[in-house]
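pinning this so it doesn't scroll away 📌
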Amino acid sequence: MISQTYPISKGDKSLTDDAYGVIMRPDCHPKVSIVVPVYNEEENMGPLFAELVAVCDAMGDVYELVFVDDGSSDGTVSRLKQLVGQHSSPLHQMRVVELSRNYGQTAAMAAGFELARGDVLVTLDGDLQNDPQDIPLLIRHLHDNRLDMVVGWRQNRQDAALTRKLPSWIANRLIGAMTGVRFKDYGCSLKAYRRDMAQDLPMYGELHRFIPVLVTMEGGRIGQVPVHHRARRFGQSKYGLSRTFKVILDLGMLLFMKKFFTRPLHLFGKVGGATLLVGMGVLFWMLVEKLVFGQSIGSRPMLMLGILLFFSGIQLISTGLIAELQIRTYFESQKKRPYRVRSIVGT
């Protein structure tokens, strides 16, 4: 067994040099990477590791397990270190990534995506509620239907109705109605991706719950399959009603990204132009009342409204122009393309 320690990413300043990885059998390229973000799941690590190894060994391809610890305060990292050396398999590789603090699930998944080397990436929670037995099903569905992503759908969800299932039901329908991308279960972490698609996703804030929308924005093809769900055996849930407000805020930002990310002037220009025209109309009418009807307008609230609308319109249009320049800088400085090529046929 070969092991070594290395920094997560030389270019990512959000992750400190304290982050580390343990690599087993680095000479073999994995076909599948299992990415598991964890936070205070010490008791679940042993059973989850055993289940993942059993399922993935049975698939017969070289695979890797990428555990990303999101700043746990219990013994999760120590337990994962112990597990690194407890299993020897010609198919098995393992990485343990420790983030310097609790960044949130989206950042933990982003770190896992960045490090994953498999052709297919599979994500699942570290609380044993997702069933590893469903992993081959997702991978098979991904390949057979030539998809870019497969979403798990928890048909028989084993969670509290009021604090977990109801908010999830509302969020699923709200996201579907607002984005036009409709799936039965946005919150299920059990998903399979093609690596190039996963590593191109913008992952920050709480965007992990909107990944199907992000993939759709990239032109990806997505399917969904029913998967098993189990009641939590150890530890406590990290989710609750408090996340509903975050979902709403991130949904607003996502809608902006979907429609206006590459053309912000279309949004600010339209709103600013309409505001400017209304303000000019109000000021023109005030001028008519002053010159034609001889009325005093100095103390009229309508005059103040016209001035406010006029300058607000100018400010909105200016904001759109500045945002347009920033978008151009974003694409040109990083040599990013505002499109994604699926395939090229011919010579």
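📌 and the second one:
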Amino acid sequence: MKYTWIKLLFLVITAPWILLRAQEQIDGIAAIVGDEIILKSDVLQLAQMTALQNNTALQRNPDLLQLFQSEALNALITQKILLDRARVDSLDEISTEEVDQALEAQISNLLGQIGSESEFEELMGQRLRDFRQDHWFVVRDQLIAERYQNEKISRVAVNREEVEAFYQAYKDSLPPVDPTYELTQILVPVKAGSVAYGLAQSKIQLLQQRLSQGQAFSKLAAEYSDDQASRESGGELGFIRRGELVPEFEEIAFNLQPGEVSDIVETKFGLHIITLVDKQGERINVSHILVKVDPTPEDRQLALSKVREFFFILDPGPTLFDSLLTIVSSEFGNSPDLGYIGWIELSLLPSQAYRSALFGLQTGQVSPPFETKDGFHILKVLNFKEGGSPNLKDYYPQIEALALREKQSEYLSTWLSNVRNDVFISVLD
């Protein structure tokens, strides 16, 4: 089961193309595929990204670098073939809104990983605004290729006989399965109370006053906004379309005139002041200052007291869990169904706190309370499966997914081999 090339192709299609500072721009064409060119810098870029994701250092190993570059070039050629076939089959249409949303998601993800806009610009070697413009067409091609590949492999299915044959062929090499739990939980969020809301109101009203006195919006946003992704750019979010932000924010933003500053706007993220930077047709460029309504230590202590009270009830009587879940859900405005987590492998649980809480628990038992960023939790184990070597009886869905992946890989590989004969491909030295 060799998935290296298809994993690399997935990286090409879905990952942002990071211009690593160490790469130093390399001029020259690596390959021509149909009417498209692949630059040598594109190849090095993807090779370095792949190495980073695999924690592999390429600087001191030229042979390994050459191997990564060879695999990267093949993956980029495959992407260009997918784009070419998508155009031939008239499946290369994609809306501007989809590209805009995917681009902003990629940039947000990058900023989260890198840390700040200034570090982003240093790493990329260009301003964020310029990156947005240059990268738009790259994202468009990524989405088209991804969609076309999914359309091709969606035709592939496996039946019971094929899954069993796959299992017999690979059962000795299948990775061991983690212990699997069927879980439900009670979650007590740490909600900001009136004191926290009052503190946030005081802060944003002071900022509003300073704006009315003529202080620069961008300066105040850079210094005081709680939106880490935009504060480095003076609160600027870039161009957006309707539907990309929360309704309360958009309702105000789209009704502003250039340079106009809004009153205080409340959303689920906190309290905002918004100003319109520019408007182009149906798109607007806005800046904002965000003040989060952060819970106080007293709010946390209140949630902790509640969850301890619930555990005190459950410790001698776990059968009361469902009734208590209904009460808790009603108190916090959630559906009781939201407490059900379902079957999940131990390693796929959201955090180490979950794994630690489950240690030693048997079916029907509840965990002691534990804390995550979402609040305080109590887990109940509904069912449990031991880990170890996977078998068809207990792990059929997982084995079926592996068998389908293998068949999809073989189908796509065969299809690509056949279609290469219809596409002009020239690999240059």
